[in-house]
Amino acid sequence: MDKLNRLYKLHNLFRSRRRPVALTTIQQELECSERTARRVIAELRDELYAPIEYNREQNGYSYSQQRYELPGLWFSPTELHALLTSHQLLSALQPGLFEPYISTIRTRLNDLLSHQTAGNPEIARRVRILQIASRPTDPVVYSTVASALIARKQLRLLYHGRGRDETTERTVSPQRLVYYRSNWYLDTWCHLRKGFRHFSLDRLHPIEIIDETAHEFSEAELDRHFASAYDIFAGEPSATASLRFTPSAARWVADEQWHPQQQSSVLPDGSYELKVPYSRPEELVMDILKYGPEVEVLAPVELRERVAVTLSAAAEKYRNA
User: Fold this and answer.
1) CA distance 86 to 88
2) Alpha-carbon distance 101 to 112, whole Å?
3) Distance CA 134, CA 184 (A)
């Protein structure tokens, strides 16, 4: 057991006992020798200013102030490792995006973990978060959006849409920040279009907060529009896709959630049928195509035909290769 573990465990031992704790008990709890137990008591008292006193009559140690808490940011080693792992995740979501805000906390966590024999560098070496198809987000854009969300202010921005290759000026009431498939999006009420819209943060430039209160909508209204249909293309569902996966693909797909309101069933031959609501087919088609011959679109007819045409066009490119 390392130093940090022992200090934390000794602190909890004193907090949980109403009577002084004998040195032999401390040795047993800390799994150490008498010399080490005395050293840990001294460290807790002298380095962390714990109000430890020795009771000669009861031959034990205790806190003279039961409300004593360890100073500053203090966690168990397991909690520290979990926090540093979370930090790795935050850093990977968008390199540099959160760094100005959490670097101080990370330094404090590193200091607390410096007593451990393994050392915190293991977190960075052993935890990997892979970003696939992520697009860089300007930290200034992110912080501006986050500030407007919290302050409930409107935003004025220029948005360049990739689909039509057009740039439009918008005034929006920000509603939610969404991290979806390695990229950041902003759910809004668009005052130009008079409706809900979502924007990819990497397509917003420039952007500014204006002194107008953002329009408010209930969680139910936002979920009904932004979370009721498949993928990032929000809106009320217009159709339900029925997909049948082969038994070999079913071993993976059956454990996946494609949509919170999906319906599924395992068929007698081991194949897997999945039904998901959607409003626009673009992203759903891409997800279907990655399974190739392992999936068949049963319905609706329009989606089945769209996937068939796409597969046919792809196959055509290889016929003369």
Assistant:
1) 5
2) 19
3) 9
Report the alpha-carbon distance of residue 210 to residue 263 in Å, rounded.
Answer: 44
The DSSP secondary-structure symbol of 20 reads P
Q: How many Å apart are CA 6 and CA 26, to the nearest integer?
A: 10
Residue type, 220: A
Angle at 20 between CA 15 and CA 23, to 5 degrees: 105
Structural tokens at position 95: 């390199």
For 52, residues 6+ apart whose C-beta sits below 8 A from its C-beta are 14, 41, 44, 45, 61, 62, 63, 64
Contact indicator for 152, 137 with CB cutoff of 8 Å: no
Question: Under 8 Å CB-to-CB from 192, ≥6 apart: which residues?
Answer: 168, 169, 170, 171
Query: Cα dist. 46→43, 127, 253 in Å?
Result: 5, 35, 57
If one counts every other C-beta atom within 10 angstroms of the C-beta of residue 209, the result is: 16
* CB within 8 Å of 173: residues ≥ 6 apart: 154, 155, 188, 189, 191, 214, 215, 216
Partner residues linked to 243 by β-bridges: 274, 297
Residue at 244: amino acid letter: R
Residues 119-143: pLDDT tens digits?
455 666 667 777 777 788 888 898 8
User: What does the DSSP 8-state code read for residue 21?
Assistant: B
Residues in the chain: 321
pLDDT in tens, 287-315: 999 999 999 999 999 999 999 999 999 99
DSSP type of residue 64? S
